[in-house]
Amino acid sequence: MQFCALMLQKDTIKLRAPEPQDIDFLLGLENDMRLWHISQTLVPFARFDLEQYVFSANKQEPFAAGQVRFVIECTENSKSIIIGTVDLFALDAINRRGGVGIVILERYRGKSFAGTALDILMNYGFNFLNLHQLYCNIEKGNEASFRLFKSRGFEVAGVKKEWNRNNGKWIDEYLLQRIEKD
Fold it and tell me: Is 122 helix (H, G, I), strand (E, B) or coil?
């Protein structure tokens, strides 16, 4: 058990399961309409739904649930601060792959926290879940995310033309993959 705890931490960043005290944070994040076009959200999340998710999250084996969500916590001056979330979604045990989604609060962006969280998640996915590949979807124009994933060995596998619609405009989306050699 200690192996898992250490495996989900690097430097000042720790990935952990969502807790009841995180519900307000998650509610704010999930109900941020600026992110809805990416997550395909059409209506606000109710507190009750998020409470149910948190109380049941990570009780199922990740492949049975099809996903696992982590809260990203940063420790500064002996104080823990929640700075975002990172998800493995569409987990596929047969083909040993999963998608990656990461959200860092704006005030914590540009400080290498996303890179460290992604390093931890990749270690978990490849070495603990024994995944063969991870992939992500990044909208054209999101240069920070594009650079982040490219810097971690993800390669562009294709472009989905006019994939997302935001503010009345169609936006292309890149598909990036990182394949771990067996």
Answer: helix
DSSP-based three-state secondary structure for 54: helix
For residue 144, how many other CB atoms are within 10 A of its CB?
Answer: 11
Q: Is residue 167 part of a domain?
A: no
Which one-letter amino acid corresponds to residue 109?
A: R
The pTM assigned to this predicted structure is: 0.89
Residue 41 token pair:
């959200």
* Residue for token pair 């978990």: 124
Q: What are phi and psi of 130, to 5 degrees?
A: 60, 40
Say whether 102 sits in a helix, a strand or coil.
strand
**C-alpha to C-alpha distance for 182 and 176, rounded to whole angstroms:** 19
Mean pLDDT of all residues in the chain? 89
Q: Quickly count: other Cβ atoms within 10 Å of residue 174's Cβ.
A: 21
User: What single-letter DSSP state applies at residue 65?
Assistant: H
Q: Is residue 151 part of a domain?
A: no
CATH code at 97? 3.40.630.30
Identify the segments of the chain with pLDDT beneath 50: 1-4
